[in-house]
Every structure is written in structure tokens, then in C-alpha cells.
Amino acid sequence: MNRLGKKAAAAAVLAVSLVTVPAAASAASAAESLIYGAAAMVYVSQYVSRLDDQGQRQFLSQAQKETGVYQSQAAADRLDAVYRRLKSSGDIKRDYEIYAAPGEDVNAFMSLGGVMCVYKGALDVLDDGELAYVMGHELAHGEKRHSVSGLKKQIGLSTAVSVYTAANPTAGAAILSNVAGNYINNAVFTKDQEKEADQIGFTYLTDAGYNPGAAAAAMQVLYEKYGDNTPSGIQAVVQPGNHPATSDRIEKNVKRMYEYSGKQVNVRDGYIVVRGVKTFAPAASGKYSAPERTYLTAGKLVRLYHDGTAGTAVFDGQDVLCGQTAVYRPGPGENGAAIAAALNKGIQKN
To answer: Where are the domains of the chain?
Structure first.
């Protein structure tokens, strides 16, 4: 039995328990065919929705067989901590199963059933704020049931009618289970769904108290590794036509930061802009590139302006502080006092 056939058989019992397939229909007129078609699509819609609601264990097992499981308690604990913090905001209503896979790609996906997989490669290069944005993006797919709508589109009218009119309920269920199992391998969302998940992911990130700059920073990490074509789905099957360009996603997240700050903090030409004044351009440090660090530093200022707690910038000999918050640690060759003075030109403007 081939891989998909095994998936179909394994899922058939669950499928039959969720729905009842009607008996086969006799030859129909054109009008009757339209009625059958409409009824078939309603049936498929109900089936997929119920599978998404009740099939979490099935899809978790299938996804883990596809990707493998990264045997690291530290990774599992880290994913759980970020997930719980995101969920604590109250924005996320469903309960999800989240696990780490051993793949080295900077990648994550959400499958049917509310199952999220995050690759080891993402855990290795993203800090917790960046990871929270990636996970928030995937959780948005789950909350909006994007996998459900995607699967419905993959099931054509002829398949729907065949399932609806199948004399054998198990055979009809197996057809749908086959499609659902294959969908895990081809987790493709539309551009509009990806954009919606980016927007909602930013809300989840900020509502949970993470650095607002982590959204743009996470996309910057992807851009530096893959350019404008990021991996999508299991085994990083790249389908660029279904994703916005990564550079565009960075730009959109910078705009979200700007709006979140009350239009007080921006990033332009590599510089942090405070109240319209170009202040300074952060340098690369450790694993952080200069652009990534710029977004994260700007994000700290964005949070302060959003909360109404921005204060005068000072250099304490180690960190540049804005009020009581450390926003930047200068590296070798950087002048902390000069950076604080540059920030104050914007902070103290007018």
C-alpha cells in the first residue's frame, strides 16, 4: 500500500464516525445535477470542518511521521513557553498541539486539526520574540481555519459528488481522508491568507508583550537566508506564487510598528527614526545582522511610545537607556553617548 493509501485507510474509521455518506444517486437531470453538486459541496464542507475539530490526534501522528520529531526537551519547553505566553493574551481560542521537527530549514507550518510544527532550523536562529511572531502567524492560520478553506478548494466538484453519492460510506470517507492526508504535504495558503496571518500574528505578538520589532526581524532572518522566496510547508517546498515577497512582509511589519508607536518610531534606510528625526543605524552584533538589530532596537522604542513611557535617552556606560528601559548595547567602536544624544534629538523634538 502506498503512503497516501495508508493514510486514507488509517483515517477511514475517524471519517465514518464524523459523517454519514448518502446512498448512491441514480442518473440525474441537469437541474438535479446542480442540486447534487450543491449538496455535495455542503457535505464536504461539513466533513472537513468536523475533521479539523476532531482529528487533531490523527493529524499530529501523520505530521510527525512526515517530519520526524526533534528529541529535545529544551526545544519542547521553549515552544510550550512561547505558546502559553501568546495564548495568555486571550486572543487565541483553540487548543493546539505543537512540536519541533529535526529539519534545518527556518520553517514552520500549521496543519488541519490545529497541529503546528516548528523546525529545529527556526529554533536555532530566531530569538524568542522572533519565534513568537512565526508561531503567532501559524496560530492565526489555525484560528481563521485557513487549512479548512484550503482543503475545500482542493476538493473539486466531481470528487465531492463522487463522495456524496458513494454507495459505500467507507470508500467515500477514504477519498476525503486521502485528500486530507495529502494536504499535509502541500500546506499552501493564498496570498490573502498569508497577509491576514501576518497582520494577526503581529497583534498576537504585541498583545503578549513581545518586542513589536520582532515581526520585521523574523522576516529579515528569512530574507537573509532565502531571499524573497521563503519555504512553505513540509520539506520547505517553495511555491513563491502563494506567498508575498519576504521584503514586502518586512516593509508591512515596519509599517505596523510605526502605527503601533502612534507614528513616533520608524525605520528608514537602515536608521531608526524617532519623531521624524534620523537618529542612528545599529551595527551587527553576535548572531544579529545590522538590519535585524535595527528592527529589534526600534521595536523597544515602539513599545515605550505605545505605552507612553518613553523618556530621555542616556548612556550608563554599558547600555543606552530610554527612561528606565535598556534599548541598545553599543558594540566595539560604537559611541554610546553619541547614540543617546542622537536619539534625544528625536525624543526631545519640539
So the answer is: 3-207, 264-350
